[in-house]
Design brief:
Nucleotidyltransferase, domain 5; alpha/beta; about 40% helix; about 230 residues
Length: about 230
């Protein structure tokens, strides 16, 4: 803008142009035309998925690999599988199952964010592309580019994996199934205004008498590692 004004013979200080833009809430041209990673995540949240592997060691001494995917907008998590041998065939089948599940659930994902882990075979991106989902790779050693998925991994470790003695792969798979249901259907999320991915926030209780005479039922999952609270019938 300053250059165009100068071309027209209008003398004005660059700082004056900056002040005008600032008052109008406009960023300088280079920043106004660029899109940051955070802008991309916010603008495409409804179409974004993210996935990652989690490692866990069971009491029988085996290292297990958990593959999970999360929807950015709803925060819904899908645990795709558990295995001690995450070879290409296993990952490919898990991704095919994911694609079918997304289609059945009416999820219109367009992007999937993942890191550059060697356990992800190249053909996986081709399968996703055929379903209309473009793979977006994070930078090297930049876990914050997949922050939504990393946050779930942290929650899963703190609320489940670090609190349970997991005997073997079968027990781990059962525990993850329980946690997936808990996370999607009950656990309150600050990012969702205390709703859960598959549960809306109920209407607040306004009757003082009902507040005084509450009858709350607690359901324990996994021997008390997880708690769910609801109104008793």
């Amino acid at each position: 803008m300053h250059g165009e004004l100068t071309t027209l013979g209008i003398k004005v200080a660059a700082s004056t142009v900056w002040e005008i833009l600032k008052q109008e809430g406009l960023d300088p041209a280079p920043e106004r035309a660029s899109t940051t990673w955070a802008d991309f995540l916010r603008s495409q949240a409804d179409a974004l998925l993210a996935c990652d592997f989690i490692e866990a060691v069971t009491l029988d001494g085996h290292r297990q690999y958990i593959l999970a995917v999360i929807e950015h907008a709803s925060r819904r998590v899908r645990v795709l599988g558990v295995t001690a041998h995450p070879n290409a065939c296993w990952v490919i089948q898990a991704i095919k199952n994911l694609v079918m599940d997304l289609e059945d659930g009416g999820c219109r994902a367009r992007y999937l964010i993942r890191d550059r882990d060697g356990k992800f075979p190249a053909v996986m991106d081709e399968i996703l592309a055929e379903a209309g989902i473009q793979t977006v790779l994070t930078g090297i050693r930049m876990p914050r580019m997949n922050s939504i998925m990393e946050r779930w991994v942290q929650s899963c470790r703190r609320e489940l994996l670090d609190r349970c003695l997991l005997w073997n792969e079968r027990h781990l798979r059962h525990a993850l199934g329980e946690y997936e249901q808990f996370y999607n259907q009950h656990r309150a999320h600050q990012a969702l205004a205390q709703a859960a991915p598959l549960r809306t926030v109920p209407d607040p209780i306004t009757d003082p008498e009902r507040i005084i005479d509450l009858n709350i039922h607690r359901r324990d999952r996994l021997g008390g590692a997880l708690h769910e609270y609801s109104h008793a019938a």
